[in-house]
UniProtKB/TrEMBL annotation, chains A, B, C, D, E, F:
Family in the record: Belongs to the 4-oxalocrotonate tautomerase family.
Entry superkingdom: Bacteria
The protein's name: Tautomerase
Annotated active site: 2
Organism the protein comes from: Streptosporangium subroseum
SUPFAM superfamilies in alphabetical order: Tautomerase/MIF
Domain 4-oxalocrotonate tautomerase-like: 2-67
EC nos: 5.3.2.-
Keywords noted in UniProt: Isomerase
Lineage, broadest ranks: Bacteria, Bacillati, Actinomycetota, Actinomycetes, Streptosporangiales
InterPro entries, sorted: 4-OT, 4-OT-like_dom, Tautomerase/MIF_sf
A molecular-function term among this protein's GO annotations: isomerase activity
UniProt KW Isomerase keyword: yes
Pfam families: Tautomerase
Length: 79, 79, 79, 79, 79, 79
C-alpha cells in the first residue's frame, strides 16, 4: 500500500494553461501506480498518490527562487 | 514533541460546505493531540498538527483521480 | 481516503522500551483512524497511517537538539 | 525540478530479500523520472526521488497495523 | 543534494502583508542553502527548498487551532 | 511555530564518519531556527526541526541512484 507524493511547481506546460492539466495529473497518477505494480507487484488499488503543486516563489534552487535560478542558468548557457 | 500531518481531500461533508469546516478541523487537532497524550504521555502543549487539504484532481487511487476511482467503485458495487 | 503521518522521537515511555511499543503504535493507528471516521465520516478502511520515528539527535527545538532543549527546560523550571 | 517521495513498507518481494532490492529501487527512480519527462517535459536531470521504507508495524490501514489488516483481508476473502 | 521543506503559517509579518513576502521567501531559500554549504559542504546548486504556507485554521498546537492557542498564551501571560 | 524538515543523504563528510555528526546536526538545527527568527521574527522556542537521513540507494537524481548519478557527473566533467 504505497503512498507517493509528487511535488511540482505550479506552472503550465501547455498553451493557455497555468498549471498541470487534469489530463496530465491523471497520467502521473496512472503512471506511477503502474510503475509500483510492475516493479514491486503492488496492486494498483492500494496505491495512493498526492500531487502537491508549489508556487514558483515558494520553490528554491541554487540558493534562489526558481525563476531567478532559471534566468541565471539561461544567461550562463548563452555565454 | 510530536508532529502530525493529516492529508485529506478538499471537499465538504456538511450541507453547503466545500471543505472541512473550522469546527471539524479543530476537532481533528484536539483529537489527535489528546491521542498522543493518552497513548504516549506527550503533553498536548508540545504536539503540532498540520492539516493539508488536497484538491480532488490531485489525489489518486487505484491509478485514477479520486472522483473517477469512486465512480468505478460505485458502479462495481451496484452490479 | 486520508493519509496521516505521525512523527515522534524514537524513545521509550515504558520500562525497558527504547521506542514506542507495537501496542502503542497499534493504539495510535486505531485512534487516529477512528477520529477521522468520527469527525469527517471517513471509512476506517480508507485511512492510511505512517508512524515516523526520529532519532533524538535528529530532532531539534528552540535551536537545540531535543535532549539539550529538555535539559534547558528542566534547569529553567527548577530555578 | 520535481521532487518525488515514494513511501513503501520495508519488506521483500523477491526470494531471500527482506526489503526492496537495489535493482528495484533503481527501477522506481528511473521509472518515475521518465514519467515526469514524458508527461510534463521535466528534464530527468532535475528530478529528485526519495524512497522511504517504513517498518510494517509503523504502517496502518483500516485502523490496524498492516500485517493484521492483511490477515483480516485474507480471512474475509476466504469466507 | 539536500531537500528542505519549511512549513510556516500563512500570515504577514510586515505592514499590509498577509503572508511572507517574496523577499522574505528568497531570504529563507538563500539562508538555508548557505547553511547546508557551510555545515555539510553541500553545493548550493544541489539544494532544493520548498516553502509550504499553511492556513492558520489548518495549524494546531496544544490541542487548539493556532489562533486560539496564541490567545490562550497571551491570556496566561497577562495573568 | 515553523516546522522544518531537512532531508540529506546518510554519508559522512568528516574523516571516519559515515553520517553527519551530532555537531553538524546541532549546527543545522541552530542555523535554521536562527534564520526563521532573523527573517520572519519566529521565536526560536517555537521552531521544530527534523533531520531525515536517507540511504544513498534510496535517493535518486537524473533517473539514477545518487552514487551512479555522481559517477556519471564525474565522468562527464573529466571528458
Amino acid at each position: 500500500m504505497p503512498f507517493v507524493t509528487i511535488q511540482i511547481t505550479r506552472e503550465g506546460t501547455e498553451p493557455g494553461a497555468d498549471s498541470a492539466t487534469a489530463e496530465q495529473k491523471a497520467a502521473l497518477i496512472h503512471g506511477v501506480s503502474k510503475l509500483l505494480l510492475d516493479v514491486l507487484g503492488k496492486p494498483m488499488e492500494s496505491t495512493f498518490v498526492v500531487i502537491d503543486e508549489v508556487e514558483l516563489e515558494n520553490w528554491g534552487r541554487g540558493g534562489l527562487p526558481v525563476e531567478q535560478f532559471r534566468a541565471r542558468q539561461r544567461s550562463r548557457n548563452s555565454e
